[in-house]
Amino acid sequence: MFLLISSLLTAANVSRAEGNNTGKAGDVLLLLIPAAAYGTAFFLDDKGGKTQFYKSFLTNLGVTLALKFSVNKERPDQSGNDSFPSLHTSATFQSAAFIQKRYGWKYAIPAYAGATFVGYSRVYARKHYVEDVVAGAVIGILSSYYFTTPYKTVTVTPVAGNGFYGLTINKIW
């Protein structure tokens, strides 16, 4: 959470320091939001979370790149034919959705705010059309929703055997 809030403040400062360079602030968040998502799983020693992040990140990357190079849509600034969908937006929304599904909404709100800013920055910088950004967000969210399960620190499992019935309780410390 600290890393994510620091990321948002850093991006805001980059934007102010460089004459409101919104595009560069979006580029900074492209790196920081996924780093915060994976970093959370890393620092919690959440092996399942790390695996789920890898799966959703790689799926998102594969789908986004496959569409980019098969759709061949020109960017608004005419700098290339890889406008659809936005990779910046898909990566940041994939990471925000991972945080939300794995660790909860209270941790995901800053990530979603940052991801939304990234989408805005891509349209503002004339790198994408609105539909490119929306498609990227949908791909990113769906990739995390498919692979990510909630992080549970306590699990209760019923146990039954030869005349024995009970519960096992596991707590991750």
In short:
This protein is mainly alpha-helical and 173 residues long. The protein contains 6 helices and 2 strands. The model is unreliable at 14-19 (pLDDT under 50).
**Which blocks of ≥5 consecutive residues have pLDDT under 50?**
14-19
Number of strand segments:
2
Strands side by side in the biggest sheet:
1-2
Structural class: mainly alpha
Average pLDDT rating: 87
Computed Rg: 19 Å
N→C terminal distance: 19 Å
β-strand percent reads 5-15%
The succession of helices and strands, N to C, reads HHHHHHEE
Q: What's the number of structural domains?
A: 1
The tally of helices reads: 6
Largest sheet: 2 strands, antiparallel
Tell me the overall shape. elongated
Fraction of residues in H or I helices:
55-70%
Overall description:
- The chain is mainly alpha-helical.
- It has one domain.
- The chain is 68% helix and 9% strand.
- It has six helices and two strands.
- The protein has helices spanning 2-17, 22-43, 47-71, 87-103, 105-124, 130-147, and strands at 154-161, 164-171.
- A two-stranded antiparallel ribbon has the order 1-2.
- α3 runs antiparallel to α6 (130-147), α4 packs antiparallel against α5 (105-124) and α5 (105-124) packs antiparallel against α6.
- It is elongated and about 75 Å long.
- The two termini are 19 Å apart.
